[in-house]
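Table 4 source record.
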Amino acid sequence: MKVSENHQAYWRKNLRITSILLLIWFVVTYVVGYFARDMNFTFFGWPFSFWVASQGSLVVYVLIIWFYANYMNRLDQEHGVAEEE
């Protein structure tokens, strides 16, 4: 089965954005969480390590999902594979 150039470009962009967002997820989940205790300053009245562990990562996860959904909708329309509503 021969894959068109349009299809290859679509998947190349899809894999690139997925890789970038997974890297952001990894950094927020493991790297920032691991070093949060060393970041000893107050942020909105709470220790920064508490804020990162309880609220900050959740906000980033929601932003990752929102960004991915919007990006993929635009990419689908750009490459002609968008679903009809």
